[in-house]
Structures are given as C-alpha cells and as structure tokens.
C-alpha cells in the first residue's frame, strides 16, 4: 500500500487526485494539506464523510512519519517550499504544479540526489500531452519554424503553461536557435507576437469553459503541420498521476517528465 499526502487538496486538481487515491486499491490517502483548510478531518466534508483522514493547513504541523509519496497540485508560489520539505523528510514527491524556475528544479534535483530519493516533476500528466511533446520534438527536426498556442481556463496563475515551456525546451534540443518571421517585423501592439523561447513564439489563451489544450504549429514552403491535444476533463491527468505514485519510490533521483517512467 502506497501512503500518500495530497497537497492542494482544496483545489481543482487536488480534489480530483484525492478521489483517485481513495478509489485506488493500492493507495492510501494518509493525510491532506492546504492552507485554505479550516477542517481538522476530511470527514467534515460531505463528499468524504465516511473517511478518517487528517487535514493540515500548516507545513510544519504535518506528521511526516508515515507518508511515502507527496502529490503536489498547489501554486507556483508554494511548490518549491513544499517539495523541498517533502524531500528533506524522505517523502517522494510527485509534482504537477507548474511555474518553478529552472534554478529551483536544479536545486531540488541536487537535494534528491544526495538523499537518493525518487521523485517526479511532470509538466503534464495527460498521455495526449506527453505524446504531443514527443511528436512535436520529432517534427521540429524537419520543420524548424514553429509556434505554440496553449489554451487554458481563466483561473490559471502561470503563463505560459508548464506544458508549453516544456514543449519549447524539447524542441530546442533538436532545433538550432532561429529568429522566426520577418527580420524587420515590429509589434504595433505590445505582446502581439507572444513570448519568445529561442525564437519560438508561445501564445497563451485564457478563457472560461476551457480546461487545458495545446497546439504546435509548424510551417514550411507550401505545407504546414499542426499537432493538437485537448484535456476536456481533469480526469485525463489521473492515470499519469497513478503511474507516478505507483512507481516513483523505485527511482533514486528527481526526474522531469512523465515519459521517463512510462
Ligand atoms: N502537471 C499536470 O498534469 C497538471 C498541472 N496542473 C498544475 O497544478 C497546479 C494546481 O492547479 P489547480 O488545481 O487548477 O489550481 P487550484 O488553484 O484549483 O488549486 C491549488 C490549491 O492549492 C492551494 N495552495 C496554495 N498554496 C498552497 C500551499 N503552500 N500548500 C498547499 N496548498 C496550497 C490553493 O489554495 P488557495 O486557493 O487558497 O491559494 C488551492 O486550494 C497549477 O500549477 C497547475 O498548472 C494542473 C493540471 C494538470
Ligand atoms: O493549470 C492547468 O490547468 C494546467 N497546468 C499544466 C501546465 O501549466 O501545463 C498542465 C495542464 O496544461 C493543465
């Protein structure tokens, strides 16, 4: 039985993940954490009324003695401190929260390595997104002119999305940096060309009704290729989270990308 804490359990992903952990035969929801929580036990929530699961709203109060895996779906401002706390207490992190800097990830990888502790940071747990990133990397070898459009719900805090940044990073591994578009182009409205990652432009759309979607557009002489994925429901992320929770203790370093454990 894998003993799991869900950080950010009051949020959209945290709630879906808590249900997945509860329903999974091989996982136990040991406790949950969210600074927004006022209850002491999950049983105080009608949707969890038959459970006995301690609720914490302060990091330092968490009883870490019997937790194997820390699932984090919180906020860009808190994820680094949460994951550092988990690693320092020997708890394997499975992190979906986006918005960490490269330096923060490197620092967490260093601490994990010292402790020989397995962990995973996955910018996207959806298999459609993992495949999109791999297909996009493959296509970029032949189509170096590329733009990324990511579309999300309008409560998202970070832009561009973690998935879009990771897509650009994977493409950059096979594509020489290149300025795209007319060398003389001028934005008459600031931001019109989006963010710029090694010459690739990334555009972020935020609209109510959307969940999580990404298109990678490639253009070449007389032809174009568009790769698109859609998460219509947060349940799309759950099989990826479950695989990570199941397998992560078998590793001894902090990995980035779900593809490394599939
Ligand atoms: N990798 C993946 O596949 C996916 C990743 N995500 C990412 O997951 C994160 C959460 O997304 P989502 O569920 O939509 O966001 P929500 O805002 O719905 O949920 C986040 C929750 O975490 C809480 N929180 C804030 N700070 C802390 C903290 N220090 N410790 C514990 N909990 C905290 C928030 O409380 P409060 O509101 O009071 O701040 C909120 O209840 C985002 O970064 C998002 O990009 C989302 C979907 C898939
Ligand atoms: O905030 C979200 O919702 C999502 N965030 C992740 C990201 O930033 O890429 C993953 C997915 O796109 C949903």
From TrEMBL:
This protein's UniProt keywords: Amino-acid biosynthesis, Cytoplasm, Diaminopimelate biosynthesis, Lysine biosynthesis, NAD, NADP, Oxidoreductase
Any GO MF annotation of the entry: NADP binding
Residue ranges of domain Dihydrodipicolinate reductase N-terminal in the record: 2-125
E.C. number: 1.17.1.8
Catalytic residue list: 152, 156
Protein's pathway: Amino-acid biosynthesis; L-lysine biosynthesis via DAP pathway; (S)-tetrahydrodipicolinate from L-aspartate: step 4/4
UniProt entry tagged with the keyword Iron-sulfur: no
Domain Dihydrodipicolinate reductase C-terminal: 129-262
GO cellular component entries: cytosol
Reactions it catalyzes: (S)-2,3,4,5-tetrahydrodipicolinate + NAD(+) + H2O = (2S,4S)-4-hydroxy-2,3,4,5-tetrahydrodipicolinate + NADH + H(+); (S)-2,3,4,5-tetrahydrodipicolinate + NADP(+) + H2O = (2S,4S)-4-hydroxy-2,3,4,5-tetrahydrodipicolinate + NADPH + H(+)
GO biological process, one term: diaminopimelate biosynthetic process
Binding site residues for NAD(+): 8-13, 39, 96-98, 122-125
Residues reported in the UniProt entry to bind NADP(+): 40
Compartments reported by the entry: Cytoplasm
UniProt cross-references to CDD domains, sorted A to Z: DHDPR_N
Subunit structure: Homotetramer.
HAMAP family for the chain: DapB (MF_00102)
Biological role stated in the UniProt entry: Catalyzes the conversion of 4-hydroxy-tetrahydrodipicolinate (HTPA) to tetrahydrodipicolinate.
Family: Belongs to the DapB family.
Protein name as it appears in the record: 4-hydroxy-tetrahydrodipicolinate reductase
Taxonomic lineage from the root: Bacteria, Bacillati, Bacillota, Bacilli, Lactobacillales
